[in-house]
Amino acid sequence: MAQESALSPQPGVVVDLGGGVRRVLAPNPSPMTLHGTNTYLVGTGGSVAVIDPGPDDPAHLDAVLAALDGARVSHILVTHAHRDHAPLARPLSRATGAPVLAFGDARAGRSDRMIALAGAAALAGGEGVDADFAPDTTLADGSEVAGEGWTLTALWTPGHMGNHMCFALGETVFTGDHVMGWASSLVSPPDGDLTDFMESCARLARHSARRFLPGHGAPVEDPAQRLDWLVRHRRAREVQILDALAPAPATAAALTARIYTDIAAALLPAAERNVLAHLIDLEARSRVRATPHPSPAAIWRRA
Ligand SMILES: [Zn+2]
Question: Nearest-CA neighbor of 187 among 220, 216, 164?
Fold first, then answer.
């Protein structure tokens, strides 16, 4: 994190990351996106894949088109249908003629449990969802997309969002918002599912990558350690939640205020969504119970 802020990447500037990968930073910095969204260009020959075009911003579209330097875009891949990653896919497709590929639309891949919970109660959530997103081609888990000198393998990694995919290029994996180097991901039900998130972490760990290129922030050069940290961080949070519930039942909001005593007030709503995601995961494992049923307003107690 210190290294990345010392470098303070500039939007619109093309950065060569080696291995045939270039990055163009979008001009959308925020507490949830760090410096902005990383748009990646894969391939240095005549055909290039663009991963995560980013927000619908004309200046960013111009920057991505300029970075092509005469090459043709053959594929536009989207890790997930959030507004900081997906909306520029359609304008970029119109400008280049390339198809948009993703796991599916904004609702695709939602877990059965989240579908059931969202049907039973108002779960809220839906932060930043690009509800209009629809790919031209849906990618099945494990499918391959190839161009001149490169092959990308799509890995379905639900958790941050049901339709989230990572894309493997040899030993490099583009991790979208599933793994970032500077923060843990927001997991906000019903699009986010912590049970799925943990399974997707285990899956990525089995992939034994040498480098992660996340949707926000600098490259992650120690993927195994970062995944290990993420899993331990989530397990520690789970223990904190169970401890905070020991004296008395509480709402997700009350638990968040008790646990997150050291973060900026602007980040508390996101923290509360993460706590709710943990509570729903714990409920599925019979560690906690919700009254009347799992929702942002529910009272939670230890089982
Ligand atoms: Zn996201």
Answer: 164
For residue 206, give the 3-state DSSP assignment: helix
Model pLDDT for residues 85-114, shown as the tens digit of each residue: 999 999 999 999 999 999 999 999 999 999
CA distance 20 to 187: 31
CA of 187 to the centre of ligand 1 (A): 9
Question: Which CATH topology does 2-231 take?
Answer: Metallo-beta-lactamase; Chain A (3.60.15)
3-state secondary structure at position 254: helix
Query: Could you tell me the distance, in angstroms and rounded to a whole number, from the CA of residue 216 to the centre of ligand 1?
Result: 10
Residue 108 is encoded by which pair of tokens? 């695709």
Contact 42, 169 (CB under 8 A): yes
> How many angstroms does the Cα of residue 281 sit away from the middle of ligand 1?
20
Cα of 13 from ligand 1 centre, angstroms: 22
Which one from 52, 57, 84, 281 is the annotated catalytic residue? 84
Radius of gyration of the chain (CA): 19
pLDDT score, position 272: 96
Q: Please give the Cα distance from 285 to 196 (Å, whole number).
A: 13
pLDDT tens, position by position, 251-297: 999 999 999 998 888 889 999 999 999 999 999 999 999 999 999 99
130 catalytic residue (yes or no): no
Model's pTM, two decimal places? Answer: 0.94
User: Would you list the domain boundaries of the chain?
Assistant: 2-231
The token pair at 137 is 């081609």
